[in-house]
Amino acid sequence: MTTADRAQALAVDLGGTNIRAALVTRAGQIRHLLSQPTLADEGPDAVIDRIADAIASVVSAEDVAPEVAVGVVAPGPLDPVSGVVYFGPNLPGWHDVPLKAILAQRTGRAVLVGNDANCAALGEAHFGQAQGVRNLIYLALGTGVGGGVIAEGRLIEGSRGLGGELGHVPVAIGGPRCTCGGIGCIEAFAGGWAIAREGELLAHSDRSPEIARLAAGKPVTARMVAQAALHGDEAARAVYQRAGQALGIGLGGLVNVFNPEMVVIGGGLAEAGDLILDPMRAELPRRAMRQIYPGLRIERSSLGTNTGLYGAAARVFYQQEVAEAP
After folding, report:
1. Three-class secondary structure of residue 175 per DSSP
2. Between the CA atoms of 322, 88, 36 and 112, what dihedral angle is there, to the nearest 10 degrees?
3. Alpha helices (H) in the chain, listed in sequence order
4. For the chain, is the Cβ count within 10 Å smaller at the N or the C terminus?
5. How many Cα neighbours within 13 Å face the side chain of 284?
6. pLDDT digit string (tens) for the chain, length 326 residues
7. Which CB contacts under 8 angstroms, 24+ apart, belong to 2-7?
8. Tally of CB atoms within 10 A around 287
9. What is the Cα–Cα distance from 223 to 180, expressed in whole angstroms?
């Protein structure tokens, strides 16, 4: 493999709604970006066919050498070594799918598969706010709460590749049931689905006429709850206050365990901004050890909608670096 080949990666962001693919350079340049609907209801085989076709289109357009590897980020629990996706949220039929093996056979290339949130942490370290940071916690606030931890420059994935499920750290002895089956997880308070659930209860109990007005008979979303809060609805604001507090409690425990230099917050729900981040910032110093908290930097992600592509490319570059390490 030439130096030029090692400076590129074919990146694929597999989501429940869209598949995005591109060639990404080590310098962070994204070339020939393609996006197409996932059409997940058609099942794993059809989706993987679309991924392979997208890769072929990028390869043809950019004349990519055969040695350039493919990095794929996917939602849900998976084994990054075997490349088997155990379960794909919003991907019907994805149970124990050997994504790496199938895609390697289809493309004739080396393929690396990683959890989207874990790879987002790598993306931040390689391309984003955390360049040069060796100890990092990344939190992705979206429909769920994902995350990744980098300690001394190494991504923590655990014995079976399932490490970094930060959204499922419990923060309450009691509390709401989480989608993982646990009770009182960070996600059960701060996930988009949890905020929408609380908003739905407020709308139907007449405690938030503003949420009910915004919903107008449609399902309540976390964005509607945020809009109501920004319009002065105190009940809606309390939902985000509680979510941010839960984040601060959970993050305090994580900071005590990993002693990071930086925490990066990403994901669509982070767009709620100070509604959720202010209570998090207020709670965090109450939970983190006073010897650990000083100097900790809290940053918003700078990678935006390309977080998945950068994470997929970073997975490739990171694996090359690990292989070369003494």
Report:
1. coil
2. 20
3. 3-6, 44-62, 99-107, 116-127, 186-190, 192-204, 209-215, 222-230, 234-258, 274-287, 307-324
4. C
5. 20
6. 555 567 999 999 999 999 999 999 999 999 999 999 999 999 999 999 999 999 999 999 999 999 999 999 999 899 999 999 999 888 999 999 999 999 999 999 999 999 999 999 999 999 999 999 999 999 999 989 999 999 999 999 998 888 999 999 999 998 899 988 999 999 999 999 999 999 999 999 989 999 999 999 999 999 999 999 999 999 999 999 999 999 999 999 999 999 999 999 999 888 888 999 999 999 999 999 999 999 999 999 999 999 999 999 999 999 999 888 77
7. 2/65, 2/67, 4/65, 5/65, 5/67, 5/68, 6/320
8. 18
9. 23
Query: Considering only CA atoms, which of 288, 269, 298 is closest in space to residue 187?
Result: 269
Token pair belonging to 149: 């931890």
Nearest to 228 by CA among 204, 209, 247, 246: 209
- Name the nearest CA neighbour of 260 among 147, 113, 127: 147
d(CA 94, CA 72): 15
Gap between the Cα atoms of 307 and 295, Å rounded:
26
- Calpha distance 242→181 (Å, rounded): 21
Q: In the sheet where 145-151 sits, what is the strand order? A: 154-155, 145-151, 136-141, 262-266, 297-300
Rounded to an integer, what distance in angstroms lies between the CA atom of residue 275 and that of residue 165? 24
Q: For residues 226 and 269, what is the distance between their CA atoms, to the nearest angstrom?
A: 10
Predicted confidence at residue 5, as pLDDT, reads 62
Place of tokens 């050890």: 289
The separation between the first and the last C-alpha atoms of the chain, rounded to the nearest angstrom, is 20
